[in-house]
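Step 1: inspect the first sequence and its tokens.
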Amino acid sequence: MLPVCCTGTGVTQDTQTTINNMSAAAGSGGSSDAVNSIPDTLSRLRAYFNSHITKSYAWRKAQLEGLVRMIEENETMWCDALKADLSKPYFEGSFTEVVISLTEIKATLKDLASWMQPEKAPTPLALVPGESYIMYEPYGVALIIGAFNYPVSHMSCTANPVLLSSLGRVD
């Protein structure tokens, strides 16, 4: 059975129900403290998002630059862990996780300022002489449940605060 990868730009009611069910299952015989802490972590991420700090260019750029540093400084650790856990050769782990992730993050950094610029939109006649714009902003907290065999690749998927989880190995 293949693992499923789901990403989203916001936590829907269905996602919240899934999180609550996961927590309930862990509390009734499961041993995962990580699963039990999901509702608390989600609450903290929502509060952080609601502070509006994630909207600024400076914050987004700093987060992406920090992610680049973290991946570059720990490439050997990532590749060693992928070798130990998944038997991925160093080159494969480096290419499929590190190089591809860094390429995407650096491309995002290059284009981020232009992506954040307001886009002129038609103004309804009733609002003339006003002007209308489309502003691209983060939606909220993202839940990313990724395939266990590509753990690094899912870290750069969103500008939103993220609750990142792996499905674990499914045999």
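Step 2: inspect the second sequence and its tokens, then contrast the two.
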Amino acid sequence: MGRFIPDHFVLDNAQIQPAHGSFSYMDQPLSLLFTLTAKNASGGTTKNYAGTQLAKLDATNQALWPSTILGTNGSFALGAKNGSTNLSTRFEATANPTGSWTAGVANVHIRVRFARLPLGPDGPYDALDIGVAPQDTDGVTLKSAALDLDAEGAGGAERHKLGQTRLRFGRLSSPMLMARSFCRSPFPPASSIGTACIGCSTRSMTAARRRASEQEQWHRQPSLLPQQSAAFLPNHGQLPRRRLTASELRRRRGKVDRLQRRQRRLYRPEVDLSAKPWLRSKWSGFASDWNEDP
């Protein structure tokens, strides 16, 4: 006599828990929770579907969650779409989920993140539907009537929708930025959501110092009498230029250095966002991607 298997699964009590109440940042973990129950053909719970020997769908295995294994025996195939855009491949589990089988029931909890694009902001996604398609190693899955999410856009629902959430491309905000006139301020538009305030970054000051060295080597210098100053000369901008001497360059660079030291005293130091990478941005204006600490 062969082993008895369930007829189908039933998924209920689904919840999406965003990181910030109503939304999450891209790359920031959010929680998915649901209850999965093994059912027989009569609709009763298959209580022997339990443990690791008789239950053939290990919800705690992180390898069973990628969207790319949809329809494979032994998978959950996490999927997502916003409107008509399939975003399934940008979701991934951040750690092994919880949800062992007891008497035919598994209460599943998984932390997932939506991958942030390194080359710049996208979104926002205000109507992001998330779903799963559980299928054990014997091929037991949800009934077709329970499938209500067509993330693949193939013309038919292939997943059960867990719910809908909102996602944002995050960065630190700087609503009270006070940068010197020679500081580049490459901050993204204020429309993006931020959580902290900082001043002009020291990387911008370093860039300013380099520009001072490279761009201020030439200076318009009139021939002045000892008692005269440039303020008394008409059309000062049309005066001939001469190359600055080494000592003059040193004095100018020293002025920038003094401003840089003052900058470090007046403004906050660089912020380490290694624990919150979803708030990184393109702070210096010279980076190739949006993955810098301010």
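Step 3: confirm your contrast with the notes below.
Residues 171-220+242-294 form one domain. The longest helix spans residues 246-266.
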